[in-house]
TrEMBL record:
<dbReference type="InterPro" id="IPR027417">
    <property type="entry name" value="P-loop_NTPase"/>
</dbReference>
<dbReference type="GO" id="GO:0015807">
    <property type="term" value="P:L-amino acid transport"/>
</dbReference>
<dbReference type="InterPro" id="IPR017871">
    <property type="entry name" value="ABC_transporter-like_CS"/>
</dbReference>
<dbReference type="GO" id="GO:0015658">
    <property type="term" value="F:branched-chain amino acid transmembrane transporter activity"/>
</dbReference>
<keyword id="KW-0813">Transport</keyword>
<keyword id="KW-0547">Nucleotide-binding</keyword>
<comment type="similarity">
    <text>Belongs to the ABC transporter superfamily.</text>
</comment>
<feature type="domain" description="ABC transporter">
    <location>
        <begin position="5"/>
        <end position="234"/>
    </location>
</feature>
<keyword id="KW-0029">Amino-acid transport</keyword>
<dbReference type="GO" id="GO:0016887">
    <property type="term" value="F:ATP hydrolysis activity"/>
</dbReference>
<dbReference type="InterPro" id="IPR003439">
    <property type="entry name" value="ABC_transporter-like_ATP-bd"/>
</dbReference>
<dbReference type="Pfam" id="PF00005">
    <property type="entry name" value="ABC_tran"/>
</dbReference>
<keyword id="KW-0067">ATP-binding</keyword>
<protein>
    <submittedName>
        <fullName>ABC transporter ATP-binding protein</fullName>
    </submittedName>
</protein>
<dbReference type="InterPro" id="IPR052156">
    <property type="entry name" value="BCAA_Transport_ATP-bd_LivF"/>
</dbReference>
<dbReference type="GO" id="GO:0005524">
    <property type="term" value="F:ATP binding"/>
</dbReference>
<dbReference type="InterPro" id="IPR003593">
    <property type="entry name" value="AAA+_ATPase"/>
</dbReference>
Amino acid sequence: MSDSLTLEGVHADIAQYHILQGVNLSVPEGSVTVLLGRNGVGKTTTLRTVMGLWQAHRGRILLGGEDITRLPTPRIARAGVGFVPEDMGIFSDLTVAENLTLAAVSGPIDSARLDWLLDAFPPLRTFWGMAAGNLSGGQKQMLSVGRAVIEERRLYLIDEPSKGLAPAIVTTLARALKQLKAQGASILLVEQNFSLARALGDHAVVMDDGRTIWAGPMATLAADAALQERLMGLSMEAHG
């Protein structure tokens, strides 16, 4: 199996802070890799650096073997990377329909893909003509995910999609992401909800202090509470 995404010794700074200090990871094609670690270790910065929003000053980022380290964000998006940022990144003054239309960078939205998305997230159908700023927090998150997946892409970067959401919304979100996974999607997911991470993840990568410190099957990490405690200072069972 080839890798959809590979990071090789990636370093990145934000202002005077050296945030990423040697990130190595891979996302095999057609699988979900979950990026784990305590708050502030660099998980969100890793996703933003892959997306070109922060610039790596050392190391390489490969998309399907192609070096994208120095590419600007629009070119990375057009190369087939969808991004769900932690702050959702929707256009509040535009309607649901307009948000999704703008996100379809390759042209008109595929009708079958749209039907799947609206079936997965029924509120987007209900509020199709409503300004996105008037949606609830959970509905905004559905729209944020919808913008990233409205087209079939080579890779999806998803940053803490369940953060702050009610359990019923998390269930809807989890079902949609499982469907996306079943379609053969390649996903790099940052997620603090360990029950969701376990349910979706094929592989796990753990970060600490700007570095990757462990990588392996999600099942291995999920089954070993002592390993979880050693790597992250917490147990998945206690935070599931």
